[in-house]
Amino acid sequence: MKKHVLTLALLGFGVVSTQAFAQIDEALASQSGCLACHKQSEKLIGPSYDDVYEKYKDDDGAVDYLIEKVTAGGSGVWGAVPMTPNGHIPAEDIETLVLQIMHEE
Known about the structure:
The structure is a single chain. By secondary structure, the protein is mainly α. Helices cover 46% and strands 0% of the residues.
């Protein structure tokens, strides 16, 4: 009984997740500036990483598209707020984060 109460309590505080979404490297996302606008499972300024995954999970070209979108920036896909270009972030870091979002790493 105690185990079930603890599990329910942890679920209530978001410590245990029932979703199987891949988690991004928070240190890398933070140092890259991504966490200023994005969160794992909640919309902030931009969409959550979970929402991005859900939108593109069945798109075979999603990884390449998202790498380009993160690098070049843009607007209109998730609303009127533009995503600024991120050319200052090393290409391999962008690729790593996109692959993590898309559950390919």
